[in-house]
Amino acid sequence: MRIGAIEAGGTKIVCGIGNEQGIIEDRVSFPTEQPDKTIRKMVEYFQGKQVDAIGIGSFGPINIDRSSPEYGYVTTTPKPGWSNYPFLPTLQREFDIPFGWDTDVNAAAFGEATWGAARGLDSCLYYTIGTGIGVGVYAEGKLVHGLLHPEGGHILTRRHPDDSYEGFCPYHGDCLEGMAAGPAIERRWKAKGSELPQDHPAWAMEAFYIGQAVAGSILLLSPKKVILGGGVMHQSQLFPMIREEVRRNLNGYVSAEAILESAIDDYIVPPSLGDNAGLCGSLALGLKALQ
Ligand SMILES: Nc1ncnc2c1ncn2[C@@H]1O[C@H](COP(=O)(O)OP(=O)(O)OP(=O)(O)O)[C@@H](O)[C@H]1O
Ligand SMILES: [Zn+2]
């Protein structure tokens, strides 16, 4: 079987082809530009490749309500040209095959549950901490959509006592994304995260915010695995610091074995599909659309 996958990010698009084992056989990537031009490149890539289905994990917010006339649209993004754009319907006019469609983070959560760190489990959370923060929610064997779709990157956080940075989220100022996404690190410390040394105080502050959010989501959703991906999480020293913050926040209240000091290294983890997490997630959505 040949399944197409589209990982549509705010800065770049990755298109690929893979199989039912989650093996990516081919991939290309190009920048996210005006939608008509960008979609044309996707169509050109898949033309003649004889894929049986295509899965799309898209930047949001997007409409994933199958009963809506605007199912498959990108909705209120500030990205030029993409606001209220019929992303999925435009592709469906070109290819008469089943399509899977979900948020980029739900796709990544689903990919990790199908072939990666949460394989065999019926729940997991996938955080991406990059230019923005997004959270994919897989619970009781299903991706969670709800009213629109979860927007866990924008939950409110308690401020670090030594932090005077106001936060960059245009909606909330100091929500999680406003305080902990890549641009917040850069604006607070006047240097890119990738340029800060591993022992810089930025990382303790970063772990403070992410740890709080993860502890909150453990209380709310009780996931069986928490996966932390995205550019900022390339700073691997953050993992032990975040685990420690999660334990400090929960303070023994959640008595699951996974949260014990001896087990938490296997509970809060990087994506095991690595930088393929997004594309494999879209592949998994495409495969599901065939069933
Ligand atoms: N090694 C690193 N250490 C710290 N920060 C990093 C590192 N690499 C990238 N970043 C930060 O991560 C952000 C980019 O995130 P990412 O690589 O996940 O891409 P993205 O697709 O633009 O993000 P998003 O998924 O939010 O759209 C930038 O703010 C960048 O400064
Ligand atoms: Zn916000």
From TrEMBL:
GO molecular function, one term: fructokinase activity
PROSITE patterns for this protein: ROK
Record's catalysed reaction(s): D-fructose + ATP = D-fructose 6-phosphate + ADP + H(+)
Family, as annotated: Belongs to the ROK (NagC/XylR) family.
Annotated InterPro entries: ATPase_NBD (IPR043129), Carb_Metab_Reg_Kinase/Isom (IPR051804), ROK (IPR000600), ROK_cs (IPR049874)
Names of required cofactors: Mg(2+)
Enzyme Commission number: 2.7.1.4
Pfam families: ROK
Official protein name in the record: fructokinase
Protein keywords: ATP-binding, Carbohydrate metabolism, Kinase, Magnesium, Metal-binding, Nucleotide-binding, Transferase, Zinc
